[in-house]
Each structure stands twice: as structure tokens, then as C-alpha cells.
Amino acid sequence: MESKLIKIRREILVRIAKAYFENNLSEKIDRIPLKMRPKNGTDISRCCIYKDRAMIKYRIMAVLGFGYEDETDELTPLAEYAEMALNKEIEDTHLTILTDLCSACVKTHYHITDACCGCVARPCTTSCAKNAITVINGKAKINPDLCVGCGKCMSECPYQSIIRIPIPCEESCPTGAISKDENGKEKINHDECILCGKCLKACPFGAIAERSQIIKVLQSISKDKSVTALIAPSIAGQFPGTLQQLHTALLSLGFSSVMEVATGAELTAIEETKEFIEKMEAGQPLLTSSCCPAYVLAVKKQLKKLEPFVSHTPSPMIFTGKLAKDKDPETTTVFIGPCLAKRKEAYDSDVIDYTLTYEELGALFVAKNIDVNDCVPTEFVNKAAKEGRLFGISGGVAGAVAHCNNSNIEVKPCLINGYNRKDFKQLAGKLLLQKPGNFIEVMTCEGGCVAGPGTIAKPNISTRSVESFANKSESIYKPEAQAI
């Protein structure tokens, strides 16, 4: 079931895309907040339609590629931002907090509800080592100045009358990159942020947004030049219909050609296997995958001890982008996937020009009245192998390396299938001290890329679709497999 917030976000994307296709974005964009929240309307999310309109305005700015922090004059019309977006360069800041939309959630704390019965045993008071709980007029009370947040009172209460009230965005962030500023509003420390997008998914107020590149993609398509869509392996199951129908839908949208990133995943698997064998022969205890850009950023920023053990093999996106540029140096490459961190990886590369999420692609289809299920299927020029098509789910990378290994060294895989803040703090120690395997596949999102922040389908549905599509494909032929 789509949340109201997701519906709002997707409606904004569709309205902007539709206005662009109709060549009247500048004329229509300032009226989008009013159309979505008309006078005397009843569909209000905030205290009033004016707050709702402000929320929509700032989300529109993010879709145009601007952050909340870019606003210097509140009276600047959205039409002006739309014009600026056409000439705006992509920036290396991919997340923005829409501060006016942040509800300044109360600090994470434990709270005693009205379900408290003031029982005689009072295990909450006896379990608290800090004497932070007292019973007043037959009800337990927590002194926030003494409470250290251990949670023992909650686990001991026989009536389950004590609850933990979290700050969703902070709780979801594995690296602790998001916290309150002096005004109680959330802020992102970009030096610690790994762009996993978990805070974006967690915030129930929609106060965190990604700076979209959808306008730059639309602009590229409209210039009647070569634009190549690079679709990630996790795209299977995101849209109705088959991958062959999706191929046709992308061509109908205006892309000149479509490539499966799974073809690049084959090359990643082959090269990573070679690297694995070399490192094991040299006496290195383990090698970790490098396909997940959020994990790679985490290592660079906070897990320095793991840096020597991270594979140097390029990701499937980079390999596929190189294939596209080798074929046509003038083509504009657009990676389409579920991942926010891919925007950073693409920005740092010289073979990927722009990125779109599945959610953004879905908005383009709706805006142009393209139903994937109604499209005539067409085949990809280069068909990918089974192992490459499985990269989008947990175990796919490790399985591909094991398949491509033709040495006497046994691949002992270990899957890090998503991690939270507690797991993240222990990750380096777990891998280096416990040595749970010699090839470590790390996925920041539980389940793999199918659970990324830019997906449409539920991860379990997408996983089954990815497996079904991959199982119909031939395997990489190991003896003659050579990467570029």
C-alpha cells in the first residue's frame, strides 16, 4: 500500500514531467502547489493548505535539482528555478533536508504510557541502575535527566506500558550522519553520509529529499541526440510486463538504445574473481565486494581498517557505461536503478552522465501515457548472463564469483545482507577478527538492490522476478570469460 507521502512525491514527479513533455513547464510549474492543494480543498496533510503548498514547493525545487539551502529569496517563483535547472550543472550534494517540513521530533526517549498500573512489584524501578524512575500517585514516571536510555525498564514491565519513541531518520542512519541542529531541526553531516537513502525512506514527514536529475535527463532526450539507458539488474519486477516490453517502453520514451547493466555485471564478476584469486595467492585473508557504492563510501569515510580489503574492480554500472561510451563516445548515458548512492558514484565517474530512480522512470511513463504492459516486446541487442542478472539480490555477487572461479582456491562466501547502526559499528571487527569467509559480499540494503530507496515494487516480489528472469538465461562461460 502506497503511503500518502509516496503518492504526493510521485504526483509531483508526474506533473513536472507532463508539463515538460507539453513544452510549458515554466508556465505551469508555479500552479502545481495550488492544483494539488486547491482553496477549500479537504485533502490537507499539515495544519493548513498554505503549509501543504510550501511542502510541495520545496519538493518541486528538489525535483528540479535544487536544495532547500539554495533558496535565497522566498519570493523567487518556481518558474525561475525551472529555467535555471536547464542550465544548472549537477552538484556533488545529492540529499537535502527541507527544514521547514521537519517536525523537529522529540529526542529519542522512553515513555511510560497510561497502561501503567502502578503494580506492587515495580520491576521498572528496581531494574533501573540510575534511579531514573519513581512512582507518583500510583503511576511510574521517568526523569529524563537521569535516564541513559538502556531500555531495561521497558523489557521488565509486565504490562508493556513503557515504549521507546525514536527519531525515525536518526534511527535509520547506520553511520550517525543525521542529527539535530541548535534549533532542534535535523541536519546531515555530508562528511559522514554514505547516501544509503534510509533516512529518506524513514522520515514520515517527507522532510528529506534527493536532488533529482530528471530535468537533465528530459533535456537530453529532447535534444534529439543519442541517449543510452542503462538499466540495473534489480529492475525486474519493478514494472508490469516483461523486460522485453520495458525495453520497448524505454525506446518509446525517447532513449536511443537500452543496455542491461547485467552485461557489465558479468565483467565485474570475471574481474573480481581474478582479483580474488590474486589476493588469496598473495596471502590476503579476505576480499570484500565493491558493487554497493554506499558500502564503498562507508569504508572511505568511517571504516578505514577495511579499505585494504575492498575490491578495486569497477562496478557493473561503470563497466556498462564504458561499453556504451566505447560504442558511441557522444552518447549521453543514463543509469536507471534503485540507489541514491549511485548518484555519487556516477558523479565521480567519466562514463555515466545522469541517473534516474525507478520511481522517477515510472513518473515519466505515466506522464507520457506509456503502459509497459501494453508495449510490444523487443529483444536487447546484447543479452546478459544469468550471474549478471542476479547481482541485484543478496548473494548474487558472491554466487557469480564462486561460479567464475576456476582455481584451486575455494570461495568461502559471507553475506552482509544489510546493516543498521549497531551492525555498522561492529562490521570491521567482525570481518577482520572473526574472518567469517574469504569473499565478503556487502549490501547496505537488506535483500540487496531490490530494497533500495528508489524502488517501486516490494523487495520480495522484485526478488522473485529477478530470479525468474535470471534463471531463463545462460551462464557465463568460465574458461573463455574475459573482461575488458
- Rounded to an integer, what's the Rg over CA atoms? 25 Å
Structure classification:
alpha/beta
Total strands: 15
Unreliable segments of 5+ consecutive residues: 479-484
Helix content: 25-40%
- Percent of sequence in beta strands: 5-15%
Output the strand order for the largest sheet.
Answer: 10-9-12-13
Number of helices: 20
Layout of strands and helices, then pairs:
Elements: H1 4-21, H2 25-28, H3 32-36, H4 49-63, H5 78-87, E1 95-97, E2 109-112, H6 123-127, E3 133-136, E4 139-142, H7 152-156, E5 162-165, H8 168-172, E6 178-180, E7 186-188, H9 198-202, E8 208-210, H10 214-222, E9 227-231, H11 243-253, E10 257-260, H12 261-281, E11 287-288, H13 293-301, H14 316-327, E12 332-337, H15 341-348, E13 354-357, H16 358-367, H17 386-389, H18 396-404, E14 413-417, H19 421-434, E15 439-443, H20 459-471
Parallel strand pairs: 9-10, 9-12, 11-15, 12-13, 14-15
Antiparallel strand pairs: 1-8, 2-5, 3-4, 6-7
Helix pairs in contact: 1-4, 1-16, 12-14, 12-18
Keywords, separated by commas or semicolons:
alpha/beta, 40% helix, 484 residues, 4-stranded parallel sheet, globular, 3-stranded parallel sheet
What's a concise summary of this model?
With 484 residues, this protein is of the alpha/beta class.
